[in-house]
Structure formats: structure tokens, C-alpha cells
Amino acid sequence: MSLAVTELTESELLELRKSDAWLPSEATRRCLVEGIPGPETLPCLQASDVAMGAALGPNNAQDPIRSLLARCYNSESKADNQRLVITADMVSQDLDGLMQLLKEHWYHAALVLTHRLLTSYGHGFDKVGQTSARLTPLTAQLWLLRLSLLKRTQQYALMNQELEAFGTLDYPDVYYEHAPHLYPGRKGSMVPFALRLLYAEAPRFIERQSEALDRLYFLAAVVARLISNLENGYTEDGSVVCPNENYQKTSLVLWRHRECRIYSCCLSIYLVANDYPSAIETVYRMISRLEPFGEHHFLYGVLGRIYLKFGDLESAERMFEKALEGSPADAPSTRSQRSMYSAMLLIADGRFNEAKRLFREVFDSDPSNVAAANNLAVCSLYLGQLEEGISLLELLTTPKPPVLGSPQPTPPLLPLHDSIVSNLAVLYEVESDRAASRKLHLLERLASVPGERLHARAFKLPLT
């Protein structure tokens, strides 16, 4: 059992202060200083989600793989025989049950349970469509989990709707100082940083990239102020001197990494938009933040792949070399990465046979390397060796036979990944006019793997 707030030691409060730190707007700061209540944060579940939760039966039609099977078979019972689905009703209706569903990758069932738990804490709609429950540290974490699950299951519209109820995440009641009698000694925001980041990037998933960038750069500006305070010897909010050198150092590491998470979201937006100049500038910004910790070298590999996208092989090769600087030359991981970089350059130069040989070497030494497997299949496609590419990807998407005495099949040879399944579906389409039946067999094969490890779209079968 976790300690109550009143039982936290001074050192524990200091550790929490690092991760909880945030800078309120001037208007909110005045409310906190003067004890003015201000607007309230009243997040609530959407009515449409209530209806969805009520509609779930024991077979859980919301499971994407089972739903796709039922559509292909035109039979609910046949889909049930093919796919065993775990539902929210099959676990304890508490945080332990939620953790069990997450551990086993049953994301839709976990969503249903977050709905039930948040409703029990007063975050559902009442008869007039309003919620009266205020945010607490526990419900803030539950909301983060629920919204992350909505992102994982690609329910982007609902995710954005539910985020709207949080306002700008800056009302006085999201800060511990608003209720010192409830949270003695606590400083900062009960809204986790990860929730602020999700709020900032959410609009990009509904085609509002500019709004997402505005939010992300606002977030980065606040983090920059926190970092500036730390660098000048003060705590994150600038109110007092850092208690010791170790506090300052560890907090700076934490916030530099969080700053890079923000820029990583920006980078994703620029790459989707093919805005390579902005993407390159963003990566260099990340490098400057991580270089003091010696954690920046992999970002030169990111730069190399960006240069490859618009055909600058010379710059790409230079970046790949910088990415390997400082790595032990004889280490297996270094040799593998060097081969991957060399193969990427060969593909860009149209030398698929040589690239294929290098990808094969990497894959043979590390069968868990998804990038090597995918690129090996791509090379096979360009070389007209479809059967070889198909055989490789089929091997990676075939669960091993169940171990004697085990009720469920063991996982596939390599962690399931949408790109593996999607590429195999494409190879089927290129290879023959029996693509639909082969993709259905692929779906049936992977339906035996428990949990929601793949998105249904990866199979490239009709979803409606």
C-alpha cells in the first residue's frame, strides 16, 4: 500500500517536486497566491462512450481482430470460435484488474474498465450532462491511462473530445498549492507531464497539425523556463534555491529529456508533412539538449535517414558515421548498426542485391530486428524474389505450436509489428489474385495470439 500524503518524508516530497513541477499562467498564479478559487477543471466521459460501454457484450465486439474476423466470415459464432477475447467483466473491477488487462494487451477491455473506474469516481455524465467530480492525483493518472489507450486504439476524435473538458490544463485546482490542506508539502501540478504532452499533440491526429505545433512549442517554452531556473541554481518554479547539487543535476536531466520528448512529437509532424528543413532543425535542437549527457549519437542516425528521404546520400553517409562515433568497433551492436546504415545507402543507390545481403546478415544475427526483416522483404520485392520475401514474413507471423501443458500458444518468433503484417499483405497483393484469401489466412493465424498487438488496418482487408 502506498503512503498517504501526510506520511511522505522530506526527501520523497523533493523527488515528487521534480516530476510534478510546472509553471502556471500569471492569472492562475495570482489565484494560487491570493487563495481565489478560480475556474474548475471538471473532466468527464463522453456520452457516446457511455453508450459504447453499455453495448459491449460477453464476446466484446470491440476487439478489432475479432470484429474483422466476424466481418470476413459474416458469422459471429465462427469468429468466437477462432478468437478468444478477454473482456473487462473477466477481471477484478479495480486497478489490479486494469493492470492485468494492460499487461496482457487487451486495450479495448482496459478502456471499458477505465470508463467504469472513472465513473465510480464521479467523472461520468449525470442526468443533466454535467460532472461534479474534481481532479485528484489518482484520477489524473487514470485519465492519462484512458486517453493513452484512446490514442493506442486510434480513437482520435473521442480522445480530443475528452481532452477538451480539461480546458488548458491550467486552472488553479490542478495545482497542489490550491489545496494545501489535502496535499501538505506538495508542490506543482497533479496533471502528469505525459498528459500535458498528449494534450499538446492530440490535434495532429485529427488533421490539425498547426494547432498541435502551437501547443507543443508553448509546452517547450514553459519547459525552457523551468530549465533556466534550474541552471541558475533555483528550483523548477524559481521560488527557492535548489536544496542541493544532486537535486539540480537530476532534475535537469529529467527536464532535458522531457524537452526532447516534445521536440520528438514536433519531428513526427514535420516528417509526415515532408517538411525536411524543419525536421532537420528539430533534430539538431534535440542533439544540443542531449549532447551534455552523451546520449545524442543515435540522433545523427535519424538525420541520416532524413537526408536519404530527399536523396542526399553524401550527407546521409556523413551522419551515419557520426552516429557510430564513440561506439566500440567490435561490439555486435555496432557491427549490426553499421551494416544497417550501409544497406540503407545501397538501397538509395539502387543496389538491392548488396543491400539484401547486409540485411540478411543483420537478421540472421538478430531475428528480433524488425527493420532488418522488413527491409529484407522490400529488397526481395524489388529483385522480383517475391516468394523469398513472403516466406520470411510468414515465418515471422506464424506462432509456434503450443508448449505441452500450456493453454495458449507461445508468442511468434519476433514481437508482432504492424509493418511486418502490412508488408506481407502488400506482397500477397503483388504476388497473386488470391491475395484476399491469403490475407484472411494470415488474420486467422494471428487471431490465436492473445491480446491486441496489431491494428486491424495492417491486414489490408475491408474494415466496413
UniProtKB/TrEMBL annotation:
Cellular-component GO terms for this entry: Golgi apparatus; TRAPP complex
- Top-level taxon of the source organism: Eukaryota
Which Pfam families does the UniProt record give?
TPR_19 (PF14559), TPR_8 (PF13181)
Q: Where are the TPR repeats?
A: 297-330
Keywords, A to Z?
TPR repeat
Alphabetical list of InterPro entries matching this protein: TPR-like_helical_dom_sf, TPR_rpt
Q: What name does this protein carry?
A: TPR_REGION domain-containing protein
